[in-house]
Write a structure and sequence with these properties.
Blueprint: E1 11-15, H1 18-21, H2 67-81, E2 85-89, H3 92-95, H4 106-121, E3 125-131, H5 137-143, H6 149-165, E4 172-176, H7 187-190, H8 214-241, E5 246-252, E6 255-258, H9 263-285, H10 292-299, H11 307-315, E7 320-324, E8 328-331, H12 364-378, E9 382-386, H13 404-423, E10 427-433, E11 453-455, E12 467-469, H14 471-481, H15 486-489
Parallel strand pairs: 1-2, 1-10, 2-3, 3-4, 4-5, 5-7, 6-8, 7-9, 9-10
Antiparallel strand pairs: 11-12
Helix pairs in contact: 2-4, 6-8, 8-11, 12-13, 13-14
The protein binds 6-O-phosphono-beta-D-glucopyranose.
């Protein structure tokens, strides 16, 4: 029967990533991750990667929001909201500073143990991403990141270290954040640390043909294949080390529609959706899909998938599908229209939808749609690992942050989730992206804020770092207290 309640034990919470919040980038033996060496940028002025620390350059990851030193205060605030789950990532370079060191860094291990214990103190379940875009820099320089098979070995060793060290403290894991990032030109750096492909980050002004050259595509898809193997091997090891482990994939799953019912647009949108199925099919079904051959041929990609690889993929299927969902895009091939821009969607703007300050379309129905598409295809439990609104917040004269736009976004997406659950989708949790303001991945800004908790810090790293509860803080608290039903009461 349809009612306003979410399932009992639904996991409400929030999600962060190490390099976007921890700071302490070289403390206690930590090595550099590739994401540490991204300069600050803006939407129109893209971030850059430097191969070493350059004097006079501001790197947002250096300080993050100082979560490394303030995690107790931050987790206490999450607990005050009522989090059931906290999704976070471990920094590989904090555990193995060069990515493939013989022994792990004890101080790094201790740090995360303390964080997990702090979560459990409040009854908050940690959900851990093993890698969130932060390939250790040393591996990128030494072996071109994920292009090398040696990176698979290093990752599996690192993953096994985590499963062993944190057995009993962590049971929900994600192998790779947004693994489909590696299919895009900006995934060369972010997703796979392939330095020989150049250092371009998200650049909405310019996606040149060179970025899409056959040679570069080949490297990208080869690196992605290596990540699939690493993920599968980690899933298998994680189950062996602790059968209670639940290990998922994480795929950026923004909805894709045809701009119109012109069949050329329908086919174009179908092709866009294949970017989702490409990774999901391998990680959930354990094999490449029927459409892969032609899909890759058209990009000029030749992939070497051995019989041994096929076996590994089959044996390392994930337990659940997790996704990020922010926005939707449309495909239009038959006319010139304005373009849109989420981090992934550079398609045609949807005339029916409003956009955020950063041009991301607001589309809660798209969430319902995509959840149904995913569940219909895979029939495994689903977890929304990221969803949220990046916006400019003003501190009012009363010292508060009245972010009704964020509350609106949360409310409407929560309704959409409930619709999907009523449709029959097995959705077991939701973590809002950036429950505390943190560094934007695409632009490096602090100004693009997602949090329920405001952090006094600007784009240049100035501020007191003080944490302030926004209006949305109290709204999410109520939402969790009522297990989602308050979103319907206000109508
Ligand atoms: C996802 C990433 O792509 O989107 C996060 O997993 C990221 O790391 C989030 O922060 C929001 O994107 P942005 O660019 O607004 O920070």
């Amino acid at each position: 029967m349809v009612n306003n309640k979410f399932p009992d034990n639904f996991l409400w919470g929030g999600a962060t990533a190490a390099y976007q919040c921890e700071g302490a980038w070289d403390e206690d033996g930590k090595g550099f991750a590739i994401t540490d060496l991204l300069t600050a940028g803006t939407r129109r002025n893209p971030r850059k990667l430097t191969l070493e620390v350059e004097p006079g350059v501001y790197y947002p990851a250096k300080m993050g929001i100082d979560h490394y030193h303030r995690y107790k205060e931050d987790i206490k605030l999450f607990a005050e909201i009522g989090f059931k789950v906290y999704r976070m990532s471990v920094s590989w370079a904090r555990i193995y500073p060069n990515g493939d060191d013989e022994k792990p860094n004890q101080k790094g291990l201790d740090f995360y143990r303390d964080v997990f214990k702090e979560c459990h103190k409040y009854g908050v379940e940690p959900l851990v991403s093993i890698m969130h875009h932060d390939t250790p820099m040393a591996l990128a320089i030494k072996q071109d990141g994920w292009l090398s098979k040696k990176t698979i070995d290093a990752y599996v060793k690192y993953a096994k270290t985590l499963f062993t060290e944190y057995k009993g403290l962590v049971r929900y894991w994600i192998t790779f954040n947004e693994i489909n990032m590696t299919m895009n030109y900006f995934g060369d750096v972010y997703g796979a640390g392939i330095l020989s492909n150049g250092t371009r980050i998200i650049d909405i002004n310019n996606v040149s043909d060179d970025a899409m050259s056959k040679e570069k595509q080949n490297k990208r898809f080869t690196a992605l294949h290596n990540q699939f193997l690493a993920s599968a091997l980690a899933v298998k090891a994680g189950h062996e080390i602790d059968p209670n482990n639940q290990i998922g994939c994480m795929i950026a799953s923004d909805a894709h529609y045809p701009y119109s019912c012109n069949p050329v647009n329908i086919l174009a949108a179908q092709n866009s959706m294949r970017k989702l199925w490409y990774c999901g099919d391998v990680q959930v079904r354990g094999e490449y899909s029927y459409f892969t051959k032609r899909y890759l041929e058209e990009k000029g990609v030749t992939l070497n998938v051995t019989e041994e690889d096929k076996k590994i993929l089959k044996e390392g299927k994930v337990d659940f599908y997790s996704l990020s969902y922010y926005t939707s895009g449309t495909d239009c091939l038959d006319q010139e229209v304005d373009t849109d821009s989420g981090n992934f969607n550079l398609g045609a703007a949807n005339p029916y939808l409003k956009k955020s300050d950063w041009g991301w379309a607001f589309d809660p129905d798209g969430l319902r749609w995509v959840l149904n598409e995913i569940y219909g295809r895979y029939n495994v439990p689903i977890f929304i690992a990221e969803n949220g609104l990046g916006a400019i917040d003003e501190v009012s004269d009363d010292g508060k942050i009245h972010d009704d736009y964020r509350i609106h976004y949360l409310r409407e997406h929560t309704k959409a989730m409930k619709q999907a659950i009523d449709d029959g989708v097995d959705l077991f949790g939701y973590t809002w992206w950036g429950p505390i303001d943190l560094v934007s991945a695409s632009t490096g800004e602090m100004k693009k804020r997602y949090g329920f908790i405001y952090v006094d810090l600007d784009n240049e790293g100035r501020g007191t770092l003080q944490r302030v509860r926004k209006d949305s803080f109290y709204y999410y608290k109520k939402l969790i207290e009522t297990n989602g039903s308050c979103v319907f009461e206000e109508d």
